[in-house]
């Protein structure tokens, strides 16, 4: 992961406003964060350039697209093959996210599927990638905590 500059409390206040109102204009963000419009524009541009702010892609529930099952596939990869395996995983539409791990497992792959048969197919596709030595699939039964960043932004905003 690239080393990025840490955001300060002003950036955190701005990002909290943006998190609460992702479609807000620069003027609205300035009002919500108590900053000037020029400061908001300059700060957002700097955060964008630094890579601190990732894609603003809206989160779409995969079940709305016909993929109600979520699973996590732990994957062991032959040494020195991580990059090519990651590229092959990126080519599978049902793969939502891949994390490189420390320990016995090399990758944690989040996938979605239409049903159990489809999950079997996706898991088999992952296992069939050259360089993948072993996989283990765990079906997500329920989401307990959604992805969130606001609690960390609130903490940073008060520093």
Give structural notes.
The structure is a single chain. With 159 residues, the chain is α+β, with helices and mostly antiparallel strands. It has a 4-stranded antiparallel sheet with strand order 2-3-1-4. α1 packs antiparallel against α6 (150-157) and α2 crosses α3 (37-50). The chain has helices at 9-20, 26-33, 37-50, 82-90, 116-127, 150-157; strands at residues 69-77, 95-100, 107-113, 132-139. 20% of the residues are buried. It is built from 6 helices and 4 strands.
Low-confidence stretches: none
Largest sheet: 4 strands, antiparallel
Overall shape: it is: elongated
- SSE string, helix = H, strand = E? HHHEHEEHEH
Quick summary:
The chain has 159 residues and is an alpha+beta fold. The chain contains six helices and four strands.
Features:
159 residues, 19% strand, 40% helix, alpha+beta, four-stranded antiparallel sheet
Write the layout of secondary structure elements.
Blueprint (H helix, E strand, L loop, with lengths): L8 H12 L5 H8 L3 H14 L18 E9 L4 H9 L4 E6 L6 E7 L2 H12 L4 E8 L10 H8 L2
Antiparallel strand pairs: 1-3, 1-4, 2-3
């Amino acid at each position: 992961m690239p080393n990025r500059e840490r955001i300060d409390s002003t950036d955190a206040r701005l990002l909290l406003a943006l998190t609460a109102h992702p479609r807000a204009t620069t003027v609205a963000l300035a009002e919500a964060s108590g900053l000037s419009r020029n400061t908001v524009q300059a700060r957002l541009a700097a955060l964008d350039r630094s890579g601190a702010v990732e894609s603003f892609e809206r989160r779409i529930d995969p079940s709305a697209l016909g993929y109600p099952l979520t699973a996590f596939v732990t994957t062991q990869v032959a040494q020195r093959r991580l990059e090519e395996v990651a590229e092959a995983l990126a080519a599978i539409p049902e793969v939502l996210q891949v994390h490189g791990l420390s320990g016995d497992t090399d990758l944690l792959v989040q996938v979605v599927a239409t049903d159990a048969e489809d999950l079997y197919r996706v898991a088999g596709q992952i296992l069939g990638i050259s360089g993948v030595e072993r996989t283990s699939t765990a079906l997500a039964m329920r989401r307990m905590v959604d992805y969130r960043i606001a609690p960390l932004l609130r903490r940073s905003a008060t520093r």
